[in-house]
Write a structure and sequence with these properties.
Blueprint: H1 5-20, H2 22-29, E1 31-33, E2 39-41, H3 46-62, E3 65-71, H4 77-89, E4 96-101, H5 104-119, E5 129-132, E6 136-139, E7 144-150, E8 164-168, H6 176-182, E9 197-202, H7 210-219, E10 226-230, H8 254-263, H9 268-281, H10 284-290, H11 295-298, H12 310-318, E11 331-336, E12 346-353, E13 356-364, H13 368-382, E14 386-390, H14 395-407, E15 411-414, H15 434-448, H16 457-464, E16 468-469, E17 476-477, H17 480-485, H18 492-499
Parallel strand pairs: 3-9, 3-10, 4-7, 4-8, 8-9, 11-14, 14-15
Antiparallel strand pairs: 1-2, 5-6, 6-7, 11-12, 12-13, 16-17
Helix pairs in contact: 4-5, 8-12, 13-14, 15-18, 16-18
């Protein structure tokens, strides 16, 4: 018997809402496995709602989605993206969704999420397929497909047009540059990119790699990607009530986690869960990487090998009251030059006044003349008393020209490869080289605290990047060559701050300074520690 007209109208309204409202579609049609193994309706959690709202806003404003999701573990980002792209594929003609994961078992799990969504769908929202394999759903009447692949084979993802691309655990792809050069070229760009979506999601894996670079650029507003970060404490299930009498302040992880606990208003059940998870994972750095509270924690280097602990950096940016530097402290700047031949190289410049490090700038693609001008303008603008310049490589030319142009009383060379001078109480050398000495003095500055540094992800990443060794009795910082072997860039911002400890500096009278005619007012030399 034919359906009444009102039944058709009701069904059409339902179909329209299902097509246009993904959240409604997910809750009323899609099924997922919960963490207990049960099949339940797909209701978005806090992290998923945040991601959805953010990318819907971007799509409304730009006509496309380009999103990077940096996340804690098990927050459902992959499930959200799988559901979103499945929803898109079954409601449009002639489109292709593609998922690329870092490992075969993950690829299989991601496809099973989508396969389950299809199999558990209501019949009226379940388009017929012409193929349904272990890696593909192909819908014959729509001429649309949903496929998955594993990052590993260099040609994975090449060929055909991709309209919806989900990159899963991108920071762990074995050949990220190859895949970005391949699969990304299958996604329409420019005027043809309208409606296409790219969602790249991952937990962190250290301050290196393509995903890290994209996130840092997005954080600075460079490029078309937006960075979305979902901290662990958003998850309702990441809580456990502590036993009676449990006192967090008596636990060994108290000092390490006190600042984030207070800063993010964690309740005691969240703190106790954090405490247990930290014990389970053994290493503090691993907990912070897998369950970060900040972007910096997600990308930190393993804390047991870093000279500068992350908790010291968190303390250095957590005090919003900001104490002031003293007027009797010298303004000590540093310049770490990089050339224009490689656009990835960065020049760092910044200055420190006592316990405050400020006005750090990262600069790319400048030649010697341009760096001379930048340094001179910086000295004049901030009334710098001393600027140390790394004279290994390009820096020697920058230094020589600055001297010839009237800054001889202000600029000083710094050679990180030269011999250190600091001694232990027994007269033995404290550091291997000058670079080790500068970083060692900087560590003492942080430890003695309180200090203040700019709230910049790149700076905190640089400061925690190098490892160290004391097996010879002297502090030896990990070399930049060894860091490159680990895929980690030169810690330029860290080198800039460290160089401000190259030597003691006199304070200059500001009303009597004129490049070559600098009059000093204080006889006592100081590192500017106070």
């Amino acid at each position: 018997m034919p359906k009444p007209a009102e039944s058709f109208e009701g069904e059409n309204r339902l179909r329209k809402r299902m097509r246009n409202d993904f959240v409604f579609f997910a809750e009323h049609n899609l099924k997922i496995l919960d963490k207990g193994g049960g099949v339940v309706p797909f209701k978005l959690n806090k992290a998923q709602k945040f991601i959805h709202k953010s990318i819907e806003k971007q799509k409304k404003e730009t006509g496309k989605v380009r999103a990077l999701v940096l996340k804690a573990r098990q927050q459902g980002c992959s499930t959200y993206t799988a559901g979103r792209f499945y929803h898109q594929v079954i409601h449009r003609m002639g489109v292709n969704g593609y998922v690329l994961s870092h490992a075969m078992d993950t690829t299989e799990k991601l496809f099973m999420i989508t396969r389950r969504m299809y199999e558990k769908s209501e019949p009226i929202f379940k388009p017929p397929t012409r193929a349904a394999s272990a890696k593909e759903l192909a819908f014959n009447t729509l001429d649309s497909t949903y496929l998955v692949g594993t990052a590993g084979a260099k040609e994975t993802g090449r060929g055909g047009t991709i309209h919806y691309f989900h990159g899963s655990e991108v920071h762990f792809w074995p050949n990220p540059e190859t895949h970005f050069a391949g699969v990304m070229q299958s996604i329409p760009t420019g005027t043809l990119s309208g409606g296409t979506e790219i969602i790249l999601e991952s937990t962190g894996n250290g301050p290196q790699g393509k995903f890290y670079e994209l996130c840092m650029d997005a954080q600075k507003g460079v490029g078309e990607y937006q960075l979305l970060f979902t901290p662990w404490y958003w998850q309702k299930e990441y809580r456990q009530n502590p036993p009676a009498g449990w006192d967090w302040t008596q636990q060994e992880d108290y000092e390490m986690n006190r600042v984030p606990a207070e800063k993010y208003n964690l309740n005691m059940s969240q703190i106790y869960w954090m405490h247990l998870k930290r014990i389970e994972l053994t290493w503090d750095w691993l907990f912070r990487q897998e369950y970060p509270t900040t972007i910096e924690e997600a990308f930190q280097t393993p804390g047991d090998t870093s000279l500068i602990p992350m908790e010291l950096l968190e303390q250095a940016v957590s005090d919003t009251s900001m104490f002031k530097w003293r007027e009797d402290e010298p303004r000590v700047a540093a310049l770490d030059p990089a050339g224009a031949s490689r656009i990835a190289d960065r020049t760092g410049i910044g200055h420190r006044v006592g316990r405050v490090f400020e006005n750090l700038e990262y600069i790319k693609g400048k030649n010697t003349r341009q760096l001379v001008d930048i340094a001179g303008e910086y000295i004049d603008k901030w009334k710098i008393d001393r600027m140390f310049i790394d004279v290994q490589g390009l820096g020697v030319g920058v230094y020589d020209i600055l001297v010839s142009e009237g800054y001889a009383q202000i600029v000083r060379p710094c050679n990180f490869a030269s011999e250190s001078v600091d001694l232990n109480p027994d007269g033995t050398k404290k550091y291997e080289r000058m670079r080790d000495q500068c970083w060692g003095r900087m560590l003492e500055w942080f430890v003695d605290g309180p200090v203040q540094i700019p709230n910049l992800s790149e700076l905190r990443t640089d400061l925690t990047a190098p490892g160290y060794d004391r097996s010879t009795g002297r502090l030896k910082l990990e070399s930049k060559r060894d860091m490159r072997k680990r895929g980690i860039k030169s810690p330029d911002g860290g080198d800039v701050l460290a160089m401000t400890f190259t030597d003691k500096v006199r304070k200059t009278l500001r009303n009597n300074r004129d490049r070559g005619k600098v009059v000093t007012d204080y006889d006592e030399l100081s590192f500017g520690l106070y």
